[in-house]
Specification:
Length: 194
């Protein structure tokens, strides 16, 4: 048999995407992150708590996925839709993560909206890449990544990464990223942490 142990044999399939609204129509998994899931991530925690109280814990971002074996050789893919808004004057962002298997990369194709991909290495080097409709960002192996929405519409991306990559959120909860993105007087400001 030509099939190896570490990689399941599955049937080919197709998936319909609503590119306008950032929805994967046949998605079997929809991961939802609300404002309360973001406690501890923003600089102005008080502003986040106020938002949760006054707006009833609004949706922050969602990820649509189809099940593919989480194994070497397969490719995970998803649509990630990040709402627009500010906590204080810090732009809405995803939690961000390293891949558990650090030597795995990811492609983000931006379908709508605008913002940044914030990336950092375990040694603290950091880099931002502009995300805008039609632009692709390559997140190389070893780089933690977080999307940030600087616009006033949802930031929608299609992502592809190795099936065995996994997600490590713990290191970001502990150390954060070296820089944050703010919108002040309509100007985007990328500020390094002290
Ligand atoms: C993406 C992200 C998605 C949500 O699918 O998981 O945009 O962001 P957080 O994982 O930071 O909450 C990806 O990078 N997968 O590897
Ligand atoms: Zn990733």
């Amino acid at each position: 048999m030509f099939v190896k142990d570490e990689t399941q044999f599955i049937q080919p399939f197709g998936v319909d995407l609503d590119l306008e609204n950032g929805i994967m129509l046949d998605a079997t998994h929809r991961l939802e992150r609300r404002a309360s899931d973001m406690l501890g991530y923003y600089q102005n925690e008080e502003a986040l708590k106020q938002l949760i109280e006054s707006e009833g814990d609004p949706l922050h971002y969602e990820v649509f996925e189809c099940p593919v074996p989480e194994e070497y050789g397969h490719l995970m893919y998803c649509i990630s839709t990040l709402q627009p808004g500010r906590i204080g004057d810090e732009c809405y962002m995803t939690k961000g993560h390293y891949h558990t298997v650090l030597e795995t990369s990811e492609i983000y194709l931006c379908l709508k909206g605008e913002g940044f991909m914030m990336m950092k290495t375990p040694e603290g080097e950091w880099k931002t890449e502009k995300m805008v409709k039609g632009r692709m960002v390559y997140v190389p192996a070893y780089w933690a990544h977080r999307s940030i929405n600087t616009g006033d519409t949802p930031l929608i991306s299609f992502c592809v990464y190795p099936g065995d990559a996994g997600h490590n959120y713990g290191d970001i909860i502990e150390d954060g990223f070296p820089a944050r993105v703010f919108l002040r007087d309509k100007e985007i400001i990328i500020e390094e942490e002290q």
